[in-house]
Design a protein that fits this description.
The longest helix is centred in the middle third of the chain and has 27 residues. The chain folds into 2 domains: about 70 residues; about 80 residues. Helix 3 packs antiparallel against helix 4. It is mainly alpha-helical.
């Protein structure tokens, strides 16, 4: 960063844009999760989607009501690094999803996307001078790491069932 220090969470218009963007993508993720969730997960996903819409709206209102420019994206070097990080993320995640889909492993695409999105927040945290993105990155990567990497990922967050007696 050339003209400002890294903060835990941005201020001013940067805060509004951050809340709006993260809220929007949370809404998309919660919506994707509603495609075929286990019955116990339907209500939490709907609540999450509703809260994400509220966050998005709050971010838009905050951005509109806050005077000034976006400090972080006013720096050409930050815009360049941001574009590289996001471009690599989209390219790698798209390529990985294509490979998973064409090899019949499409059920692993959400886990792949979660991993990539989580990891991309680590370099974005320093690029955008927003340390709170590290918490988001850690949360997404931890969620994925806490999920067993065996079995069928389409089981959602359900715990693996034990095998019946005599079955391995």
């Amino acid at each position: 960063m050339t003209d400002h220090q890294t903060s835990f969470f941005p201020t001013g218009r940067d805060r509004g844009v951050t809340v709006a963007v993260e809220g929007f993508f949370a809404f998309v993720w919660f919506g994707w999760g509603q495609a075929a969730p286990p019955s116990w997960l339907v209500a939490p996903l709907a609540v999450g989607a509703g809260l994400a819409v509220l966050l998005t709206a709050a971010g838009i209102v905050l951005t509109a009501r806050t005077a000034g420019r976006l400090r972080v994206m006013a720096d050409p070097e930050v815009r360049r690094r941001y574009s590289i990080i996001v471009g690599l993320e989209f390219g790698l995640l798209g390529a990985g999803a294509a490979v998973l889909g064409t090899t019949g492993q499409d059920r692993w695409i959400p886990a792949w996307i979660c991993a990539g999105v989580g990891v991309h927040f680590f370099p974005l945290a320093s690029t955008l001078a927003n340390r709170s993105l590290r918490l988001l990155a850690f949360g997404l990567v931890t969620l994925l790491a806490g999920r067993p990497l065996y079995g069928d990922p389409s089981d959602g967050l359900r715990l693996p069932r034990s095998q019946p007696e005599g079955k391995a």
